[in-house]
Design brief:
The complex is a heterodimer of chains A (about 120) and B (about 110). Chain A is mostly beta strands. Helix content of chain A is about 0%, strand content about 50%. Chain B is an all-beta fold and about 110 residues long. In chain B, strands 1, 3, 4, 7, 8 and 9 form a six-stranded mixed beta sheet that branches.
């Protein structure tokens, strides 16, 4: 059974940093691109970032470029999202998901709250 | 990258059919056959319902179907059931080599 389990969310002050993790199981993690998608409270889904199966290529939404870094450790079946210079508008549930060309499995998400 | 345009809400009675539209541009929906649809119940993670414009993953009811014409994709749900009440999001690959979602549509089963 494919499982994606996110962790690392919490309350952080504006300008602070946080690292999210997503542990994968039930499939060959190293064969898949992986994604981060976020959802602000009461709002829609927004693409954040993705990373190629071997980690050699990464892409970001303009809203997080230069502040967020996606990475992966295929030996640990783990996806990461390092978030720096956090802003109030980054407050959201962050989901990791497997793809592409569609996101066929999603984790349950981890809530990041940016507030003083 | 601007979000794809979806109606904020649609509704239908049990047994009826409804269609949700998803309008983009030639740089996303119109340019690629990588349109997906996701269903999200409150408090839950999204679930893939349609991929590649019109393909259903294993386990998804054949009451769900997808199509595309030009820059607009559509999700049709036939034989509406109470459990179909949820938020629905479309998504497309873009010419920027990233992905874009629609703003979401709240489906109410009357």
């Amino acid at each position: 059974e494919v499982q994606l389990v996110e962790s690392g969310g919490g309350l952080v002050q504006p300008g602070g940093s946080l690292r999210l993790s997503c542990v994968a199981s039930g499939f060959t993690f190293s064969s898949y691109w992986m994604y981060w998608v976020r959802q602000a409270p009461g709002k829609g889904l927004v693409y954040v970032s993705d990373i190629k199966s071997d980690g050699s290529s990464t892409r970001y939404a303009d809203s997080v470029k230069g502040r967020f870094t996606i990475s992966r450790d295929n030996a640990k079946n783990t996806l990461y999202l390092q978030m720096n210079s956090l802003r109030a508008e980054d407050t959201a549930v962050y989901y990791c998901a497997r793809g592409p060309p569609s996101l066929d499995y999603w984790g349950q998400g981890t809530l990041v709250t940016v507030s003083s | 990258q601007s979000a794809l345009t979806q109606p904020a809400s649609v509704s239908g009675s049990p047994g009826q059919s409804i269609t949700i539209s998803c309008t983009g541009t030639s740089s996303d929906v119109g340019g690629y056959n990588y349109v997906s649809w996701y269903q999200q119940h409150p408090g839950n993670a999204p679930k893939l319902m349609i991929y590649g414009v019109s393909n259903r993953p294993s386990g998804v009811s054949n009451r769900f179907s997808g199509s595309k014409s030009g820059n607009t994709a559509s999700l049709t749900i036939s034989g509406l059931q109470a459990e179909d009440e949820a938020d629905y999001y479309c998504s497309s690959y873009t010419s920027s080599a990233t992905w874009v979602f629609g703003g979401g549509t709240k489906l109410t089963v009357l």
